[in-house]
Design a protein that fits this description.
The chain is about 40% helix and about 20% strand. Strand 1, helix 5 and strand 2 form a beta-alpha-beta unit. The chain has one domain: Rossmann fold, CATH 3.40.50. The protein is globular. By secondary structure, the protein is of the alpha/beta class. The longest helix is centred in the C-terminal third of the chain and has 17 residues. The two termini are about 30 Å apart. It is built from 11 helices and 7 strands. The protein has a 7-stranded mixed beta sheet, sandwiched between helices. The relative contact order is 0.17. The structure holds S-adenosylmethionine (SAM). The site of S-adenosylmethionine has 25 residues, from helix 1, helix 5 and strand 2.
């Protein structure tokens, strides 16, 4: 399954497309900022707006060393480093995302504060109890072994540390329409319900602090995005469609339909290591 996931996310020309998009807004690697990269490098429903709200609940500070699991090309990691002053370590399975993310960190002067590693979230190359907090945005949909994943996160966190999850979760038995942004076909999708996340987290040694279904936020976000697109002449130079390649329009419209019909929903879970 892992090779299929890496193949699904590998773009081939991600860095070049980001540079093209930056040029269209008059920016270069020497002048672009973390906020200007936000529309392209936050690969989850609601983008930076969702991160601001979700990460804002984790009470991070400059004293924290934070783990971003399945960091993609590091948009949320750079946001956390620049907004809260935290040191951030990210890990992601897809080599192209990690190398692209490392370039973006250099461009915005964050490569000392944000380290991105290639690797598998179910076997991370870090010592026990070395992180003050962890988060994961839109990653669990690709990881069938959630018990293994949460056991690994539990091992890496200090006692009492917070773990935030923002994933697309299964909310009905009805089959999904594919492709979606995280999978071309069902073989690479490993959805679970909010109840399954909660029970697996509890069995892995976490206490659940809060769960929040973000379906309404997602519908509102999609409607606002559609209105903006209708007013302009097509997709913006920098947008999340870039990471999804040529099939971005069909992946996005299938995801909107899967959410609108109640098959899946983006859900947040905030837990503490016991
Ligand atoms: C939809 S993207 C989200 C990326 C990032 N969290 C964000 O919100 O911008 C899902 C990411 O999960 C990564 N991923 C999937 N399975 C993984 C695994 N077993 N270990 C680490 N990363 C994984 C993929 O490579 C991809 O970058």
């Amino acid at each position: 399954m892992k090779d299929g996931i890496t193949a699904h996310y590998t773009h081939g020309q991600l860095l070049e497309r980001i540079i093209d998009g930056m040029a269209a807004i008059g920016k270069t690697p020497g002048t672009v900022t973390v906020d200007e990269l936000g529309p392209v490098d936050e690969f989850h429903i609601g983008g930076r707006e969702a991160s601001e709200d979700f990460i804002g609940q984790l009470q991070l500070s400059a004293k924290d060393h934070v783990l971003d699991i399945g960091c993609g090309f590091g948009g949320t990691a750079r946001f956390v480093a620049s907004r809260f002053g935290s040191r951030v370590t990210g890990i992601d399975l897809t080599p192209e995302f990690v190398s692209t993310g490392q370039c973006l960190c250099e461009w915005v002067g964050l490569s000392r504060q944000v380290e991105l590693h290639q690797g598998d979230a179910t076997a991370m190359p870090f010592p026990d109890e070395c992180f003050d907090a962890a988060f994961m945005l839109h990653v669990g949909m690709n990881i069938a072994d959630k018990a293994g994943l949460f056991a690994e996160v539990h091992r890496l966190l200090k006692p009492g540390a917070v773990f935030g999850v923002y994933d697309v979760m299964q909310t009905s038995e009805e089959p999904l329409v594919y492709p979606v942004p995280w999978a071309t076909a069902p073989e690479n999708s490993a959805l679970a319900s909010p109840g399954q996340y909660v029970s697996t987290l509890e069995r892995s040694g976490f206490e659940i602090i809060k769960t929040r279904d973000r379906r309404e936020f997602a519908s509102d976000f999609f409607s606002r995005t559609r209105r903006t697109l209708e007013k302009s002449s097509g997709a913006p130079p920098l947008g999340v469609h870039i990471a999804m390649g040529h099939s971005a329009p069909v992946k996005i419209s299938n995801m909107v339909e899967n959410i609108a019909t109640g098959r899946v929903s983006p859900v947040e879970i905030i837990a503490n290591k016991q």
